[in-house]
Amino acid sequence: MRYVVYGAGGIGGGIGAELQRHGYEVVLIARGDHLERMRRQGLTLRTPAGSETLPVHAVGHPSEIEFRDDDVVILAMKSQDTEAALEDLYATAGPSVPVLCAQNGVENERRAARRFERVYGTLVFMPATYLEPGVVLVHCDPLRGVLDSGRYPHGTDALLETVCADLEASGFSARPDPAIMRLKYRKLLGNLGNAVQAVCGLDAPVGDLLRALRAEAHACYEAADIDCATAEELDTRVSILRETKIEGEARAGSSTWQSVTRGQGTVETDYLNGEVVLLGALHGVATPANRILQQLAEQGAREGLQPGWMTPDEILDRASPGAGAPPAGGDGAGG
Fold first, then answer.
1. C-alpha dist (Å) from residue 39 to 25, 155, 197
2. How far apart are the first and last CA of the chain?
3. Are residues 194 and 243 in the same domain?
4. What is the pLDDT of residues 296-306, one digit of tens each?
5. What pairing do the DSSP bridges indicate for beta strands 135-138 and 99-101?
6. What CATH number did the domain enclosing 162 receive?
7. Residue 251: its pLDDT value, please?
């Protein structure tokens, strides 16, 4: 079996590197300086156990790959990039290639299922950092992360059993789960805070804002009758992980914070907080905190505002009854 990892940043690069280190055939799809650095110098994987630079097969587009019957695609790009990636993948690989969505949120599986015959949701718990081209950090040892997967919308199959076994052999905990979306909906509640870090910074007092965001989400889940795993279920599953310091490296913020810090210009908040906003619109639930944060995160990424340009209290004030929409410009931005 060959693994095509589409989106070789922190998560995709870490998964692909560990699969290759353990003897599996891997192709990475990346872009920009990251792709060029990997082509010239390989992919450097830094973990608490040390640093290793791997010669990797890296390409910039699916059309550069001659797809085979034994290929499995692992999607690991940010959700705002999924649609274009699926179009390119479908045009090159066709509808029968298996696709695992190792991504935040719950929208990627829906979009993949419109085109591909075998789609799988993957729960990703993997503390990874990608800030420097050609370098990926995974802050976990000895296991690198939890990568449970299930057939979308539900079920498992023989292929998934093999994929999970390969990931287990590569340093991950990976179990087939026929109801994987229950866990992904639970993880989404945690991901609602990703944009908070991107707007407010890493050290802001965010407790009240996080509670407001999650209260809205819980109300939406109840109104939509969404089957969501309990906090205890998810906590028990990921309790086997041990986040560990990498010598000489600080642990970065959320993936959204990393996107803003790299100056990427876009964030995936539309598919995290925006998922709650959509559910609220469909089921008559007010979601002002998630809506305001979604707008602010997009504004900050678009205008190149670094984390810390607005406080949690300012966001809550804007989400309060009678408050106006966020401004079109960047007032409130700090240094």
1. 17, 38, 32
2. 50
3. yes
4. 999 999 999 99
5. unpaired
6. 3.40.50.720
7. 83
